[in-house]
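Re-running the complex after MR caught last week's input typo. The corrected sequence lines follow. Everything else is unchanged.
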Amino acid sequence: DAGVIQSPRHEVTEMGQEVTLRCKPISGHDYLFWYRQTMMRGLELLIYFNNNVPIDDSGMPEDRFSAKMPNASFSTLKIQPSEPRDSAVYFCASRPSGIVGKYFGPGTRLTVT
Amino acid sequence: SQKIEQNSEALNIQEGKTATLTCNYTNYSPAYLQWYRQDPGRGPVFLLLIRENEKEKRKERLKVTFDTTLKQSLFHITASQPADSATYLCALFEGQAGTALIFGKGTTLSVSS
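Corrected-run output:
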C-alpha cells in the first residue's frame, strides 16, 4: 500500500485566495483525520470522519475552513479566504476501527503571504 | 486546566546510552496513550500503544510505561543509535473516541556517535 497520500506537498498562496488540500486514505481505513501542526501549538485536530461522515469538527478554527469526504478514498480540506495565520503544515491521517495507531500522510506545507 | 507536557524540547545523548522521554498530563483520564516518531518534513509514525491497565509495553529496543497515579508515561530507547534521532510525540486517548484527546508538542532527541 502506498500509505496516506496528500497533495499538494507545498502550497504558497496570497491572502484572500482559496486553498484546497487533498487526501487519499489507506484503503480499508474507515477513520480519516485532518490535523494542523505549528511550532507554537503543536499538532491540533481539525476534524475527523468515520465512514465518510464528519463526527467532530470542533477543532475547525472558523467558518473559513470546511472539509468534505465524498467517498471512502478521498477527502478535501478547503480554506476560503486564506489568511497568513493559516500558514502551517496540514496532515491527513487514517486508521482502521479499533484501538490502533494512526497512519499519517507526508503533509502539505501551506504558506499564505 | 488540562495540559500535557513532554519533559523537554530537546534531549542529547551519546550512542549506546538509554534515552528516556517523559510525558506528563494533568486533568485528563486517558484510557490509553500512544507514542509517535516524527522526522523533519514527514508525518508522525506510530510506534507503541499502552492501555491504562498495562504497566509496560515493549517493542524491540523501545519500552513504554504508563503510571495513571503519577499521570505519567515514560518512553525508553535502549542502545540508542544516531538513526533514532527524531522528535517523539505522545498522545492521550479517552475511551473509544475516534481521536486523540491531545498530542504533546514533542521532544527532539539527538543521538551522537
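None of the earlier attempt is carried over here. DSSP finds no helices and eleven strands in chain A. Residues 23 and 92 of chain A are 6 Å apart (CA to CA).
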